[in-house]
Amino acid sequence: MRLDALLEDRFEGRGQHRQLRPFQSYGPRHLIDDQGRRVLNFASNDYLGLSELCTSSEIRSQPSSRLLAGNTRRHLELEDLLADFLGRAASLTYPSGYTANLGVLSCLPQKGDTIIMDRLSHASLLDGARLSGARIERFHHQDLNHLEELLKRHEKKSSQIWVVSEGLFSMDGDLCPIREMVELKDRFGALLILDEAHSIGIYGKEGRGWAHQQESLERVDILTFNLSKAFALQGGVVSGSKKLKETLIQNSRQQIYTTATPLSHLEALPERLETIRKSDAKREHLAKLCEQLAQTLSLEGHTAPILPYHLEGSDRALSIAEDLWDQAIFCPAILPPTVPPNSSRLRISLNALHQREDLSTLSQALIQFRAGAPLDSHQRS
Fold first, then answer.
1. Alpha-carbon span 164 to 155, nearest angstrom
2. Domains present along the chain, CATH in parentheses
3. Which of 48, 106, 42, 34 is nearest to 272 (CA)?
4. Does the active-site annotation cover 122?
5. Which of 128, 138, 190, 203 is the most exposed place for a label (fewest CB within 10 A)?
């Protein structure tokens, strides 16, 4: 077919390592694969294991956008609940975290503005920036000196500067220097968009996130996160001022032209939020697991539940991921272009349902592979 030939010519070799593995059932600690085998799961973002609380698969949808017939009083009540939790004036839900980031970045920055974003920011942030019409600059990962240099360069010639970063980076497992970043953005009159998708629930008092733990949340202009990580639900959230919420309702295409998030995906939110607030023991247990595995695998400096185990070459990463799968351990390989060139790794994701013996099983397998053929497990600088 002509289409197939075109697709092969344009896309062959790009992302061909990806595969959709079929599972009979999901659990944050164990999966059941399509052969009925019990597999240790080190690929979930369900950091507190709250998906175990799911009791029903019923899905009720409002088959309309919220501006037409998809909005309910309950949507507004739940958004107020999230705003109160974070100490913000307002919150707005989107169908997913991806559409939340896309909705903010494609709507608010405009032609004449400059977006300065961490080079390793999530694809949803970069895609939104590209749709905005604003000039895009990307500073070296976590490099505040480079950020300051770009702020100085564009201060006089931009209508508005927007700084964009993640709180906890999803592939490298390192945390944003948020205190220094808010100082810089304030000094140059910039506005900060911070994606806390991976840090809400596991950092800060009662799980309010990394910016809250660093006493910087009030100075973050726009906070985004999703409900599919620590909340183990579905949906994205933008949190900030009431004016921000109203502006997005009126102007964000990802809010206007899509079906409302099914209320059934949000009804469990009050219970999940209360559980997160009372999960100090789980957060403490998770922190200890992170420390244990980081020490065992010589990943010094890693304290987050995302641990990148760097390997030499994509083929090596894929091979070890398959070897782990054969040993009933699911720990997927992450390859370029998802990560920068020459930075293939296993992405080890921990959650509060993991036990020390699970980590021992994983680390012993990795040490065994290392003994068979030396691996490069250093932390990329």
1. 16
2. 22-48+280-372 (3.90.1150.10), 66-276 (3.40.640.10)
3. 48
4. yes
5. 138
Backbone conformation region of residue 66, classed left if phi is above 0, alpha if psi is from -120 to 50, else beta: alpha
> Pick the catalytic residue: 17, 41, 101, 122?
122
Closest CA to 44 of 377, 350, 275: 350
Q: Considering 46, 166, 221, 358, which one is annotated as catalytic?
A: 166
Query: 3-state SS string over 192-222?
Result: EEEECCCCECCECHHHCCHHHHCCCHHHCCE
Residues pairing with 30 in the sheet: 40
Q: Are strands 236-240 and 90-94 parallel, antiparallel or unpaired?
A: antiparallel
How many other CB atoms are found less than 10 A from the CB of residue 282?
22
* Residue 120, both tokens: 């390793």
Any catalytic annotation for residue 166?
yes
* Per-residue model confidence as pLDDT tens digits over 272-321: 999 999 999 999 999 999 999 999 998 877 889 999 999 888 888 999 99
